[in-house]
UniProtKB/TrEMBL annotation:
Belongs to the prokaryotic ubiquitin-like protein family. It comes from the Bacteria. GO terms for molecular function: proteasome binding; protein tag activity. This is Prokaryotic ubiquitin-like protein Pup. Pathway: Protein degradation; proteasomal Pup-dependent pathway. Residues 1-42 have a biased composition (Low complexity). GO terms for biological process: modification-dependent protein catabolic process; proteasomal protein catabolic process; protein pupylation. It comes from Bifidobacterium tibiigranuli. Residues 1-44 are annotated as: Disordered. Coiled coil: none annotated.
């Protein structure tokens, strides 16, 4: 019986460590997603402010002229 109890404790300990190991990458992934989201929001804010100030010039910079 003591051997069975000891084996169960070992398995529970391994399972807990495995759960912790899986949680760490998820936290890092969430952090990366938040950083990417912030970067995207910043880019979109820049585009929006440019469009508010001079939309015609902004769009014209992407349009080819005279078959170029």
């Amino acid at each position: 019986m003591p051997q069975q109890f000891q084996r169960n404790q070992s398995q529970q300990s391994d399972a807990a460590q495995s759960d912790e190991a899986q949680d760490a990458p998820m936290a890092q992934q969430s952090s990366k997603q938040a950083d990417q989201s912030d970067a995207l929001d910043s880019i979109l804010d820049d585009i929006e402010s440019t469009l508010e100030s001079n939309a015609e010039e902004y769009v014209g910079s992407f349009v080819q002229k005279g078959g170029q």
